[in-house]
Design a protein that fits this description.
alpha/beta; Rossmann fold; CBS domain Like; 2 domains; 13 helices; globular; binds adenosine-5'-diphosphate; binds magnesium ion; ATP hydrolysis activity; Gly-betaine_transp_ATP-bd; ATP-binding cassette domain-containing protein; ATP-binding; CBS domain
Length: about 350
């Protein structure tokens, strides 16, 4: 297949939405005189050289990106690439070394302690790999915990917590204790607790990494369902490409603290920015991720132009029956405009890879 880039960037559900979170030139350097690194010649060194010369680790290097309101924004990279540090900087659980973080007009880096506490209580929520449930509290009390800290009165607190309990499919477990639940169920409690405060942005740091593959798939579907139902902005860290492709509206790929690529799943798979990303996506079934815009070609003389019509964002796998059944090319049409055609040859080339 020869696709290098799609004819236009593919619209995702959240693609027209404005940014809720804007990050510019963000650095996190650990080590002696860390603040001297950003903006100096040291900033040009590779992570390994910097470590050797100064003893500093550049966990996040000059990161700039925006998260759009309502999208699932995935941060992906190998272990040690800086994902956790990056996301912790966004809520200042880790203090950034340099750069700018703006949440919906609020300058996070300038926020004073009290404002920061309010942000963490009301506008952000985090879900970690280790569920962090309080073992001596019932499930319902765990879900209500954040609300209790916010000072919400008992009756509304429990009514909201019960609503969240139902939302994550744990109806009937209100009085159980965490250790009576499976890992997957405990993480559902974690999800319910995070959603209870009605945050604007949910941060997930590899929340399903400790779960068995089948449960993990379950939980991914749960996140997709919850995202549809509550429509929250989600920043989701994972080192698992399958998880990234399944959940992400867009994916940011990190390597050695730096951003390598930001794009929709089909952009990352169809046009990897470098060998690191290429290696990541090597084993993906491209027909499951790429859309018709990646394989369509201009019509040629002799093409019958009265074949079936499909949109450019139809995933190739979904289009296969239509394409193979038709005795003429499928027309790829958006807003009444013919963008290209796709025939059996184009489809089979992808499937045969
Ligand atoms: N508190 C710290 N002090 C020193 N180095 C750290 C600290 N936290 C993380 N690092 C280093 O920063 C790099 C990125 O770590 P991390 O953000 O945890 O990566 P990831 O979440 O992608 O696995 C790693 O090299 C790690 O060792
Ligand atoms: Mg991590």
């Amino acid at each position: 297949m020869t696709a290098t880039s799609p004819a236009e960037t593919s619209p995702t559900a959240a693609s027209e939405n404005p940014a809720i979170l804007d990050v510019r030139g963000l650095w996190k350097v650990f080590g002696p005189r860390a603040a001297d690194v950003p903006g100096s010649p040291l900033a040009e060194l590779s992570r390994a050289e910097l470590k050797e010369r100064t003893g500093c680790v550049a966990a996040v290097r000059d990161a700039s990106f925006s998260v759009r309101r309502g999208e699932v924004f995935v941060v992906m990279g190998l272990s040690g690439s800086g994902k956790s540090t990056l996301v912790r900087c966004l809520t200042r659980l880790v203090e950034p070394t340099a750069g700018e973080i703006v949440l919906d007009g609020t300058d996070i880096r300038r926020a004073a302690d009290k404002q920061l506490r309010d942000l963490r209580r009301h506008r952000f929520a985090m879900v970690f790999q280790h569920f962090g449930l309080l073992p001596h509290r019932r499930v319902l009390d765990n879900i209500a915990y954040g609300l209790e800290i916010q000072g919400v009165k008992k009756a509304p607190r429990y009514s909201r917590a019960t609503e969240m309990l139902d939302l994550v499919g744990l109806t009937g477990y209100a009085d159980s204790y965490p250790d009576q639940l499976s890992g997957g169920m405990q993480q559902r409690v974690g999800l319910a607790r995070a959603l209870a405060g009605d945050p604007e942005v949910l941060f997930f740091d590899e929340p399903f990494s400790a779960l068995d593959p089948l449960i993990r798939r379950d939980m991914q579907n749960e996140v997709i369902r919850l995202h549809r139902e509550v429509g929250k902005t989600m920043v989701f860290i994972t080192h698992d490409l399958g998880e990234a492709l399944r959940l992400g509206d867009r994916i940011l790929v990190m390597r050695d603290g730096a951003l390598v690529q930001t794009g929709t799943p089909d952009e990352v798979v169809g046009a990897p920015a470098d060998d690191y990303v290429r290696e990541f996506v090597r084993d993906v079934s491209r027909s499951h991720v790429l859309t018709l815009r990646w394989i369509m070609r201009p019509p040629e003389a002799g093409d019958a132009l009265d074949g079936p019509e499909l949109g450019p964002d139809v995933v190739i796998k979904e289009a296969v029956p239509t394409v193979l059944r038709a005795d003429r090319p499928v027309r790829v049409v958006a807003d009444g405009e013919l963008l290209g055609v796709v025939g059996a040859a184009e489809v089979l080339e992808v499937i045969a890879e």
